[in-house]
Amino acid sequence: MSATDVTSTAPGNAAKDADSPTPHDEDGPGEAARTGLLDSWPPSRLLRLFAPALVFLGVREIGLLGLSWMSGRNDISASDALRSWDGQWFLSIAANGYSGVPPHLVDAFGKRSPETPLAFFPGYPTLVGWVHDLGFRLVPSALAVTIVFGMVCAYGLARLGTILPGGSWRVGLILVALFAASPMSIVLSMAYSESVFCAFAVWALVCVLEREWVTAGICCALAGLVRPTAAALVLAIVLAAAIAIVRRRDGWRPWAGVVIAPMGLVGYLAWVGSRTGEWDGWFALQERGWASGFDGGAATVKFGLDILGNGRSVLEVATVGLIVTALVLLVLTVRARVPWPLVVYTAGVLVMDLCSNGLMNSKVRLMVPAFVLLVPIALALDKRKRSTMVLVLAAVAVTGSWFGAYSVTAWGYAI
After folding, report:
1. Cβ–Cβ under 8 Å, residues 189 and 82
2. Could you tell me if residue 185 is inside a domain?
3. What is the phi-psi region of residue 184: left when phi exceeds 0, alpha when psi lies from -120 to 50, beta otherwise?
4. Disulfide-capable partner of 217 in 22, 79, 135, 261 (CB 3.0 to 4.6 Å)?
5. How many domains does the chain have?
6. Residue 393: its pLDDT value, please?
7. Is residue 156 part of a domain?
8. Residue 282, domain extent
9. pLDDT digits (tens, 9 = 90+) for 292-338
């Protein structure tokens, strides 16, 4: 099924009118208005309205409880854990701009140049800086941005679940729960950029499936200011729009999507190039500072074989297991006939993650945007009894909470 074959439908006005009782004529105007307002929002409708946010926040609360427990066991502050590693860079950029990052923040080799902070994309710290400028403290501002965009992503996943082949509102809510409970979902509660990126990415994909090309392009462009992973999103949107153009569908809108989608990513990479004096300045910064570059997956394979050979730590063994699981889920995603733009995006995320060297311990975190991998699981759970579904989701939430909490408390290296 192609992206251009998937359309959304909305209930007709007649159905809406049938759900809203008409006030009695004998009621006064004020009483009628109050009665109509209350009756138009029965508890079931309110629950449906807030369900994605409640599911997301509920599962993330389990993660934060796990973090609190692990923090106590490892004599570390939970608040410090929530702003650790890359969070320190994002907070410093939000407060001081790229030129004002304190000198004690260094790359993976303990070095620092004036250009080093440019390795971090500006979207997330800019949003944090805007909230901070309103008078709120820096760390609460960062965590608020993370949580709000996590909820925006939750609504996007809920919507995605309804427009997938074989999908439903329940599938969407299961997707939200799986996403909030996934390994390394702890970053969805930290001063990290994943929640902002995932929010823009999921809505861009929803808009592609609904053939809202301009909105898809705008969401993709904004995602391109948040993380380099937007390259996979650009690929999916441009290919889908190109097919619509070839098939002469939707007029000028696919052309607009093609033009708008890469603007954020290309614009920032070009700006970094101008600042560094190198056309590939951002990639050069990654290579010099974090030894990160495309190697076709050689480093990941070597890492996996080494870890399986000696099992140095539980986190590294689990990382290898999760990499294999992600590849299996990609195959299942194809077999589940998930619309191909989503498959292209997901495959792109995995290629960018697994086919680069650098910090192997970040591999699972970098797979957080590959939320489409959760679709086959959500579709399968939707066919099970409710008790089975709840037990599985609870087990995933507890396991994912432990993994994330372990990563930022007991594990002593960058994630």
Report:
1. yes
2. yes
3. left
4. 261
5. 1
6. 96
7. yes
8. 49-408
9. 889 999 999 999 999 988 877 888 999 999 999 999 999 999 999 99
